[in-house]
Amino acid sequence: MSLPVLSSPTQSESTSVFGALQDSHGRVIHDLRISVTDRCNFRCSYCMPIEGLAWKPKSELLTFEEIFQLTKIFVGLGITKLRITGGEALLRRGVVNLIENLAGLPDVQDLALTTNGYYLKEHTPDLVRAGLRRVTISLDSLNPQGFHNLTKINALPRVIESIDVAQKAGLTPVKVNCVLIRGVNDHEIEDFAEFARLWGLHVRFIEYMPLDGPGAWSRDRVVPGREVYDRIQARFPLLPVAGKDLSETARRFRFSDGVSGEIGIIAPVTEPFCGACSRIRLTSDGKLRTCLFSLHEYDLREPLRAGATVDELITIIQSAVFRKEPGHRINARDFIAPERTMSCIGG
Ligand code: SAM
Ligand code: SF4
User: Fold this and answer.
1) Tens digits of per-residue pLDDT, 186-204?
2) Number of domains within the chain
3) CATH at 66
4) pTM reported for the whole predicted model
5) 86 CB less than 6 Å from ligand 2?
């Protein structure tokens, strides 16, 4: 398959010549999540509204050329970590070409993809050739019925096969994201730990966040990270992984008996890590979000389409980042969930 190459960055755009992206709380931003679509072939109840699902028209989505243009600017502003996400990124035709172009950007130290794994198996060879380095696969149940209940699709064997193919292709460490919901899949915590050991995977347990449409989330459905740790520790003693990057969201553990695999615990609800956040997001329709829970977003698509200069776009980005929220307010009495659900924001 031939992969068309988009225009490459100029020297001045490819190095951090524009100055670092820093917010008013002193946090330096070096991590950009790029959502390439709001569409998905799964219907995970924690990620999408149950009713009234409507995809954005194609004209509202950034083209790959536009995504690349904006990403070059972000990289020039000091972004070193890129993650492609969605919706389901592998549903968008041409995403491999985008990844190839992003992989060619100087100064990008980490390029990863988050996927539900459905189409990963067949795309893996092209993704590796394109320069993808790591992959995170979402998987919330190891039981076919449980998997279907959560995603509304019978695809557990396909996803497991994709994990296998990704591992063998060297997209390692393969990370598996598991969102825990009380009474739905929390009985599988130890099974997932065993899965991590058997396959040598990094399994990351994520607390359920209120990003699934109005009124769907409730606090009593959140499984606290501490509980996850205690339960796994009781079965497979854990040791903390040293040398953690402070901006990393997961607390990481290895197995004390030396068996391969890792456990990550991501606890944004019970143990917020906003003080060390270094992340921003670009939505598929070209909005810059400075927090998952932002109630305000900054449009980059229209200025870009109207012919804004690089300097003008930089001004929008820098002033948005400067106003980055000090933290999410999930635990505040007057918390307001964002209008967009996770599938539209890009997780
Ligand atoms: N479709 C891809 C996938 O499922 O991996 C990428 C997009 S998905 C929105 C990115 C991540 O967000 C997934 O790992 C998913 O489990 C997580 N996620 C979605 N809704 C969430 C919620 N309400 N709370 C916590 N994590 C959530
Ligand atoms: Fe789709 Fe991923 Fe959301 Fe599930 S979590 S509905 S796979 S975007």
Assistant:
1) 999 999 999 999 999 999 9
2) 1
3) 3.20.20.70
4) 0.93
5) yes
